[in-house]
């Protein structure tokens, strides 16, 4: 939207971008960006999901008027005359709330509409140069009432608003072929074909073109649910469908048609050839809600009297119809249902920041649960390493899962689906966090933010008929992802890149904070995430020998599908059910004054056996007088076989009391035997 375009509806709107932006933010309209261009300065807004009325200049102007206390202006709207000589049309579905159809004769299909209207269309990328189409789009953009037009010479017989029948198909505007429609879809049809899917899109076979000479102009209101279902079935989403999906104003069909007619008649583009047909007029009544000023004051913590309540609500179009009783405007009947909704309107008008803060009543409090203590410990550790906590949805759509693209039968291919989800982005419960983590990296990169460290505590939903709820297991997890340099802002400008070892180190820091012993091993191919992490830069995390998470670089195929370019993010996931915070922390190596007796053992190992696994076996098989085991050296004994490593382990034994060398040598033999017996079949042996 342009600020100049908004001034048509709100002439006193200030040019100060800060005032303008603050007013929008305080109205709940998130400003995504402001593009300064003098009088054509444009603003991109993030609309609330339940506020269809915001999707127009008039709707946004009303919000700004309420915030800034500025008077509204109106635009020209031609009066609608309903009569018997209008186009032949009928409505046979109760899901059509209101409907009008007006016949026009085109005088000049390329006539120019008013400059300010054209400017608004161009900014919204809706300008076509065909005056009839532009006038219809302008009515929706300016007033929020979508208007559709059909080429009357391509419409056969009477028009009917009905539900589609079995095996009917429809060819949308611009589509090469027709496609089948689900039975029961709300459509607009003539005697031979479907000319529009109601509230979603017009048909190619009744499309208005530069050669159109007679037009049928439709202004209607449909129930939100059938529009949403039809848009989902067709895979279409446009300003018209988005407006209807959020609830159109059934009292505004005359205004929508009247605005389009005013533009066309004013430009000399078209004229009416008769009266308007209105086969369905909204039969409902606007709801009335009661507000008690004293209760509203208690609820908001602000002193309000009845006159002030009425004045503040009137700013948003709520009309007082009696003492403490307010009629909900047609634009708000879909989201204002009860008195508490009006309390929210009062709070918005006062300003959330202006409401007094009140501490919540609380008792003495309670000690954190083990889960809360665990999450707090891990979170504090990650924050200390520079991570930021983020929040994602428990749902996602198929589009999100495309970055992984699990094959049929893969454990991550099965989901718990949401029937009739209001938004396709919430059509599946997530069964993994990697997809959203990778998408988050991509989103940051698009905003030129390359230093990325994110984590989230959440749940995944793994489908299982054996689950207690019959659908899925809910598994609590913590995931983290890192990309970019290790350190920012170095004087030298040089820093390493955060890699697998950085995030493994983070996991070890977490284990230290929790007081648990962490080991790692090669990530089994059977792990659900194994196909989406780098096969040679990933590992499974173990706590006390039990699987407790994964760590690994994102697989190149996943990075390619997510469009991450040359970036190589690393992913960490902890299974919180396998972690705990222990009051008796793991005991470190005890300090002793006497020097240790040191010996070394060198084993040749394959990649399938980790250093931690061998070291743990040595500890288990050693006597109590073994002080420590650590890796001293690693090298490749045969460069032709890079899969095998030679690992030297340094073992330190107590020197007190003194023992004969034969005893130590005997222990070393026992340790070699223990390792060989456990890992010999995998190719581990003492290096000759």
Quantity of strands, as a count: 29
Numbering strands along the chain, what is their spatial order in the largest sheet?
Answer: 17-20-21-25-24-23-22
Question: Helical residue percent?
Answer: 25-40%
Low-confidence stretches: none
Radius of gyration, CA atoms, in whole angstroms: 34 Å
- How large is the count of helical segments? 18
- Tell me the fraction of residues in β-strands, as a range: 25-35%
Average pLDDT number: 91
Look at the helices and sheets and give the structural class: alpha+beta
Q: What best-fitting shape do the alpha-carbon axes yield? A: elongated
Largest sheet: 7 strands, mixed
Distance between the termini: 77 Å
Description of the molecule:
- This protein is an alpha+beta fold.
- 28% of the residues lie in helices and 25% in strands.
- It is built from 18 helices and 29 strands.
- Strands 17-20-21-25-24-23-22 form a 7-stranded mixed sheet, with helices on both faces.
- Strand 15 (319-322) and strand 16 (325-327) form a beta hairpin.
- It is elongated and about 115 Å long.
- 35% of the residues are buried.
- The mean pLDDT is 91.
Brief overview:
By secondary structure, the chain is α+β, with helices and mostly antiparallel strands.
Keywords:
688 residues; seven-stranded mixed β-sheet; alpha+beta
Topology:
Elements: H1 3-7, H2 17-26, E1 30-35, E2 42-46, H3 57-68, E3 89-91, E4 96-106, H4 115-123, H5 131-143, E5 147-151, E6 159-163, E7 169-170, E8 179-180, E9 186-189, E10 194-197, E11 201-202, E12 214-222, H6 224-234, H7 239-245, H8 253-267, E13 270-280, E14 288-290, H9 293-300, H10 306-314, E15 319-322, E16 325-327, H11 339-350, H12 370-384, E17 388-389, E18 395-396, H13 398-401, E19 428-429, H14 434-446, E20 452-463, E21 472-483, H15 500-514, E22 518-522, E23 533-543, E24 546-554, H16 556-562, E25 570-575, E26 597-606, H17 611-621, E27 626-635, E28 644-653, H18 661-679, E29 685-686
Parallel strand pairs: 3-6, 17-20
Antiparallel strand pairs: 1-2, 4-12, 4-13, 5-12, 6-9, 7-8, 9-10, 10-11, 14-16, 15-16, 18-19, 20-21, 21-25, 22-23, 23-24, 24-25, 26-28, 26-29, 27-28
Helix pairs in contact: 2-3, 4-5, 5-8, 6-7, 12-15, 17-18
